[in-house]
Amino acid sequence: MTLTAPPAARPAASGPDLTRAALSGRRRFTNHLATSAIWFAVLLAVIPLALVTYTVIAKGGGVMSLSFLNEDIPNSYRREGGGMGPAIVGTLLITGMAALMAIPLGVFGAIYLNEYGKQRPLARVIRLMSDVMTGVPSIVMGLFIYISWVLLVGEQTGFAGALALACLMLPVVIRSSEEMLRLVPDELRQASMALGARKWKTTLTVVLPAAISGITSGSLLAVARAAGETAPIIIVTGIVFSPNWNLFDGSNTALPAQIFRNASQPFEAAQDRAWGAALTLIVIVLGFTIIARFISSRFAIKER
Amino acid sequence: MASNDTNLTTRPSVAVHAPGTTISGADSANASVMQLRDVSVYYGNYEAVRGTSMPIQQNQVTAMIGPSGCGKSTVLRALNRMNDPIPGARVSGDVLFHGQDLYAKDVDPIQVRRRIGMVFQKPNPFPKSIYDNVAYGLRINGIKGRLDDHVEEALTKAALWDEVKDKLRKSALALSGGQQQRLCIARTIAVKPEVILMDEPCSALDPIATAKIEDLIFELTNDYTIVIVTHNMQQAARVSHYTAFFTAEVDEAQERHGRLVEFSQTGKLFTNPADKRTEDYITGRFG
Fold first, then answer.
1. What is the reported pLDDT for A10?
2. CA separation (Å) from B119 to A224, B123, B217?
3. How far is B195 from chain A (nearest CA, A)?
4. Does A48 touch chain B (CB under 8 A)?
């Protein structure tokens, strides 16, 4: 750790003036302006985030308790107490089932698009369709599942909700996974190929592990979005007041639907439950994020 | 940096194998493991390399030199069908490996690449541990037996074992560029190919790392046949027994094609080239 001569030892007069004061006033002004604008933008972006978090915690924290998490939903909005147990069960089951359907399908779809289909006509059509599908409003997806599944089976079920959510997640998973696969350097594929690996082996053992953490993040965004979907749940899963652990038999409910129903009541007890449900939902999504990050960090080998 | 392991000290230094060193009876004693006969490589309608014919001698180093865009890498990649996935790429003529045309209909490119491995310009270790990088080829090729022994053997041959033996489970990406490239060589030799193709393996490395790789190349000729593409004429003169000089030429239709100008023993090509274009290139008058 030998340092060269300290700057002060250098005769000040001989060298060029490197201090900030030497900059022209206009440049200094522009620099300050840009920096302040960036800080202002950051603050502006954080305000809604902080306010939402604060409000939900402040209002939902009051009703939060262990009994709120596992008690049944009162079948009268007017009644105080009770909990969101059935909605938590419903959210976990429905979102979980939707993820189970959409993520493998979406990842395999992305593998086809990026590794096999590339610019072939079929791949282009799939890409276009999934872009279109991303733009389909969730309520339209709910109605689609109502017509094509609920009317067919004859009852509203949790599984119908999972189907609708899976349809909403699928295009997001496909496109985000494809982007992540595209980021995997071609050199790795070539290296594997030059060792005599078949394409599926290369994809499975080199490309996918290299992209896994990005794919996990993308899929997680899709799960988080699906967990908050309200409209399709209301349309295709109906409502229950005690937990229904069976996705295939009978109606179910989920937190977003309960937030909507309870928040639109004039009774304070119902509104409190809505805030509590909102807080629970945020915490659940946060939990998903943490779990997924943990899993992907176990998968992916560290850079250093 | 230099390892003092006794196993490795027998490695001859590069200087021993100076340019012009004649390989005793090279032409007669060594069988050619590969043979190119009038090989042209096309990308779509564009003929990137035209009519190349040359042998690749067993357990010798064959260098391909020439200016940028002369098609030397293209020819190299044609030797183990690495051009296959490029849309529109095709090869005419015969690329013979032990007398068998690699581009015959019933030839499986996977089988070709298991016998003819490749090391690339940029070190490209998998984002896995050092151990898994070397074991990868063994695993996918279903090589049974003690994986640990195979990995140690390959790393030792690649002159990397002493530097990494205590951190086999660490990420390969933490190694330096030169170590990464030797890891890539270890990965390639682990599956025991007959021929190793090297596409400018030292162009991303500093002189010390380059010297190590060159030592290694010389050492590897005991077991393997090596074809190396290089920009660096001194390198070709140092490491190779045979040299092929390529250049790009513009034909009547104003299209550039890579062409093989001269192929001969390295000593002869650098001291007494038969072709004027070779002489101009190696004396620095062109390219």
1. 52
2. 43, 8, 12
3. 12
4. no
Residue of A nearest to B196 (CA): A194
Of the candidates B104, B82, B99, B86, the one whose C-alpha atom is nearest the C-alpha of residue B227 is: B82
Domains of chain A: which residue ranges?
83-299
Q: Which residues of B touch A188 (CB under 8 A)?
A: 124, 126-127
**Residue B260: C-alpha distances to residues B44, B71, B102, B245 (Å):** 21, 9, 20, 6
In CATH terms, the superfamily for domain A83-299 is: MetI-like (1.10.3720.10)
What ipTM was reported for this prediction?
0.81
User: Best mutation site among A200, A203, A206, A301 for testing chain B: the one with the most B CBs within 10 Å?
Assistant: A301
Phi, psi values for residue A31, rounded to 5°: -60, -50
Per-residue pLDDT tens digits for B24-81: 434 444 588 999 999 999 998 888 999 999 999 999 999 999 988 888 999 999 999 9
Chain B residue with minimal CA distance to A204?
B140
pLDDT (tens digit per residue) in B201-226:
998 888 888 998 899 998 899 999 99
d(CA B200, CA B260): 18
Where residue B216 sits, what CATH number does that domain have? Answer: 3.40.50.300
In total, chain A counts a number of residues equal to: 304
Dig out the tokens for B104 from the structure.
Answer: 């015959």
pLDDT tens per residue, range A269-283: 899 999 999 999 999
Domains held by chain B: number: 1
Contact between chains at B191 and A188 (C-beta distance less than 8 A):
no
The segments of chain B whose pLDDT lies below 70 read: 1-30, 286-287
Asked, for residue B73, whether it belongs to a domain, the answer is: yes
Q: What is this structure's pTM?
A: 0.80
Closest chain B residue to A185 measured between Cα atoms?
A: B124
In a domain, B203, yes or no: yes
Q: What is the pLDDT of residue A6?
A: 53
Domain that holds residue B41: 32-282
Chain B: nearest CA to A210, how far in angstroms? 7
Using the Cβ of B211 and the Cβ atoms of chain A, whether some distance falls under 8 Å is answered with no
In-domain check, residue B13: no
Provide the residue-wise pLDDT of chain A in tens; the chain has 304 residues.
Answer: 455 555 555 555 678 888 877 778 889 899 999 999 999 999 999 999 999 999 999 999 888 888 888 888 888 888 888 889 999 999 999 999 999 999 999 999 999 999 999 889 999 999 999 999 999 999 999 999 999 999 999 999 999 999 999 999 999 999 999 999 999 999 999 999 999 999 999 999 999 988 988 898 889 889 988 999 999 999 999 888 889 999 999 899 999 999 999 999 999 989 999 999 999 999 999 988 888 878 777 766 554 3
In a domain, B224, yes or no: yes
Helix-, strand-, coil-residue percentages of chain A, each rounded to 5: 75, 0, 25
Give the Cα separation of B170 and B125 in Å (integer). Answer: 13
* Nearest partner of A92 among A244, A239, A217, judged by Cα: A244
Q: What percentage of residues in chain A have a pLDDT greater than 70?
A: 94
Chain A closest-CA separation from residue B110 CA (Å): 5
Helices (H) and strands (E) in chain A, counts: 13, 0
